[in-house]
Design a protein that fits this description.
The complex is a heterodimer. Chain A is mainly alpha-helical. Chain A has two domains: 88 residues, Rna Polymerase Sigma Factor, Chain: A, CATH 1.10.1740.10; 100 residues, Winged helix-like DNA-binding domain superfamily/Winged helix DNA-binding domain (Arc Repressor Mutant, subunit A, Orthogonal Bundle), CATH 1.10.10.10. Chain A has nine helices and no strands. In chain A, helix 2 packs across helix 4 and helix 3 crosses helix 4. In chain A, 34% of the residues are buried. Chain B contains seven helices and no strands. Chain B has one domain. Classes of the chains: A mainly alpha, B mainly alpha. Chains A and B meet through helix 2, helix 3, helix 5, helix 6 and helix 8 of A and helix 4, helix 6 and helix 7 of B.
Chain lengths: 199, 140
Amino acid sequence: MLEGTADAGLLVRLRAGEESAFAELLALHGGRLLATAKRLLRQDADAQDAVQEAFLSAFRALDGFDGRAGLGTWLHRIVVNACLLRIRKRDRHPEPTLDDLLPTYDSTGHYITRQASWADTPPEISQRAEVRRLVRETINELPEGARTALVLRDVEGLSTADVAAALGIESGAARVRIHRGRQLLKALLERKNLSGVLE
Amino acid sequence: MTDCDRPSADFPDDCVRARALLAKLAQGRGTPEDSAAAEAHIRVCAACTEVRRDAIVLTCAAIAAFLDDVITDRLPAAKRIVFESHLAICPDCVRYMIGFRSSVELTRGVAAAADPPPDMPAQLIQAILAARAAGEAGED
């Protein structure tokens, strides 16, 4: 409610073209959105360009903003779309698919190899700086399609339907990409012996 | 309605109890005694035997496809019984499920415990404001 009221006041000033309102909007949401762009694009310069494009496009669309979502949510969506557009335009370098890390099954559909045991991971483990660094680095090693879907779903917190809409694909296809990303991340964390960090 | 839905007077809660044991085993928390107790019931219950047959027929590959719904608690009840019955007899699926869940929870935990967002660089703010002003001037 408070956020809505604050948004409403800011929105009136933005629509009136008040310069200080634009500076305020950038200061209020810029850092968080820049972090989102860095997670999606991995490179600082790219992330800054995407955030700039997104804000300029948001400024142009202010009159059409219906206020159903908060300003922050609306801006987040615009930044995500700007980042995805950049990812799609990037030169596609061949990258390892990492398919060899996916589970393998025998002719009857059962696991060929013994699956690794994970110790119970207490929730507070993610507070540890070295664990956070390791998980982030590992996410960045995923192939682009799986990485983008996983970041949108498990890091940015979008629903599967919203991931599908952002990527312009069917919901079923989004589910497959998210699942593949999760499977590969699990395997990569195992390969890095995450349990060694957790102990 | 199956035998399991309408337990006999002699075993009123046996199906419920056996399935609770299967769920416990599926989470890797069951003991050999839990397994023996669940098995003892399944042997004498036609409906639970049928579920067990489905669970055995279901492959680990098919079970892995359920995981995204399992961790968000969206697996329909009928599939959950088969899923848990399979896990109760498949240690590899239990290990895979625990690793999968832990990995997703860790990712979400890391996202939630994110470092404070970086400050928006002053030169970026200036660049955006200048570009906006230039755009406005261009429209006039």
